[in-house]
Design goal:
mainly alpha, 116 residues
Length: 116
């Protein structure tokens, strides 16, 4: 069995890395949902406004058809907006970690060099 010997700062770094991986991914996922929702609501509103300009006093059937079409467009826009949310969440959670470790090790090297 291989045993790793980590000092205290490395243990803290691992804990913070795991926390960032989970928290960063959840944070980005939440942002993506909010953006997709706002985008699709805007698309739906634009669709409805466009129909009102074309036909200011529509019949009951025309209103129902318009609503169905606009709802379908809104759903497609939402689905396209969240298409890559998992990838983006994964990137936001994992990509910063190696850069943070590199930065910390560079700081440790500089501090040790100044102390010599």
């Amino acid at each position: 069995m291989i045993r790793f010997h980590l000092n205290g700062w490395q243990r803290v770094g691992i804990v913070l890395s795991v926390m960032w991986a989970v928290g960063g991914a959840l944070w980005m996922n939440n942002i993506q949902w909010q953006r997709a929702n706002a985008y699709s609501l805007g698309v739906g509103s634009s669709c409805r406004a466009g129909f009102e300009v074309v036909q200011p006093t529509p019949s009951e059937q025309a209103i129902e058809d318009r609503e169905k079409r606009c709802q379908a467009i809104q759903e497609r826009s939402f689905n396209s907006a969240v298409k890559f949310k998992s990838r983006d969440a994964l990137l936001a959670g994992l990509v910063p970690i190696p850069f943070a470790w590199l930065l910390v090790y560079l700081v440790v090297i500089v501090v040790r060099m100044r102390g010599d």
